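Batch job 17 of 40 flagged for manual review because the log was empty.
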Amino acid sequence: MGSPGLKRAQAKMESAGVDPTAIEVFSHYYRLLEHGETGMIPESSIEPLDMESLADVEVSPEEAAEAIRATVVIKLNGGLGTSMGMDRAKSLLCVRRGLSFLDIIARQVLHLRTAYDATLPVLFMNSFRTSADTLDALARYTDLPVEGLPLEFLQNKEPKLLADTLEPVSWPKDPELEWCPPGHGDLYPALVSSGLLDRLIDLGYRYAFVSNSDNLGAVADARVAGWFASSGAPFAIEAVRRTASDKKGGHFARRKIDGRIVLRETAQTRPEDRAALADLTRHRFASTNNLWFDLAAVRKTMHERRGVLGLPLIRNVKTVDPADPSTPKVVQIECAMGAAIEVFDGARTIEVGRDRFVPVKTTNDLLVLRSDVYDLGSDFVMDQSAVEIPYVELDGEVYGQIGEFDKRFPEGAPSLKDSTSFRVEGDWTFGPKVRVVGEVTLAKHVGAQRVEAGTVLEDE
C-alpha cells in the first residue's frame, strides 16, 4: 500500500505519460524520503581514495582508434541555466566567435569522426524544456545525425513535492513549474525506456562516453577510450585533483564496509563532516562527471535490478519557482549518475588533467571561458593557454544574471591569461582590450564605474 501522497504523484506521472520504469524509480525514492532517508554518507563510513593517472598510462594508437570507433557520445543537456537568469538550454550560450556550447560540441564530434574514421554518434539527453531549442540549434549540422539513431532522447520528469507534506505541488499559474527532472541519474532509466540502450548494442557499439554539455573540456578522447577498453572495467569516471575552488564540492572515497568506490556529493555530507569534505589533503579527487561505461554491462545490471539501480538519494530543497524565493518550498528527488560507480564490480577511476574539466556553472566561469585563458583550436578543443586558471569572483548582485553580465562586457572579456585572481565588487563596465595582470580587486563605489579601453589592471 502506498501513501496518499505517493499515489497522487504516481497518478500525475501516469496521466502525463511518464514511462512506467521512471515511475517505479520515483516511487522507490519517494518511499525512502517518506521514511526519513536523507542520503547522507557519514565521514566515519568512508576512507580516502587513491587512483592511477592517465599521464602514466600507455595506450597504443591502434588501441585508442579501435576503442573510439566502438564509442557513442552522450551529452547531458537538460539544464536551463536558471541560476544565471536563463529560461532555455544553457548550452545555447555563446562561448566565442559566435559559437555556442552546442556549436563547439558538434564541431568537436565531426572533427573526431574524420580523425579516426569513426561513426561516433552523439546523443543529447534533453529535458522537456530544452529539447526544441537544442534541435533547432543543431539543425544546421546536417551531417551530425547518424543513420538509425536520433540526435536526442528525453530525460524523464517527476512532480515537485511540497516540503512539509510530500504532496505533489499544484501551480496553476505555470503548470510546467510543477515538474522537475530527476537528476542526471535518470540517464540509465531513460536509455532503457527510450529503447536506445538496446539499439546501440544491436548496432555494434560497446562503450558510452557521457559528460555535461557545459564542460567543453569533456571531449571523447581516444586515449581515455583506449584505457577504458583495455581495463575491462564495466564503469569508470574521470577525476581531477581538488583545488580551493572544489572545497565545497563532491569527492570520491572508498566505503569501508565493502570496499566499493563511492561519490559523496555536498548534499550528502552531514554538517559535522563539512570540515573533512573541505580537507583537500584527505579527499584529494573530485569527479569531472565524465563517465565511461560498457553498454552491455549497464543493460545486464538494469535488467537484474528491474530498472532501479538504487543510487543514493539526493534530497534537493528548492522553491516552486526557482526565480522567486517567496514561492512554497519543494523537495526535488534526485540522484547523481556518477553514483552508479558503487553499483558495478570492478568500477575504476582515473586522474586526468584539469583541461578535461572546464564546467560553466556561474558567470564567473563563463568570463574565464570567454577570455584568452583558453584558445579554441582547429579541433575545437579548448586548450589552456595560461599557466594557471585565474580565480574570478564577480559581484553576484551585479553580474550574476547573464543579461546584466553581457551588458558590462559589451566588447568581450578582458585578457586574463596573466591574472592569478580577479575580484570585482560593485558595478563596473569594461571597454575593449582591458588586461588584468596578477592579483586584482576592483572595489565598490557609489554608482556605476567604467574601465576604459586598453587599461592594464595590475597587482598593487
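Reviewer: the log was empty due to a logging misconfiguration, but the result itself is present. The chain has a mean pLDDT of 94. Unflagging and moving on to job 18.
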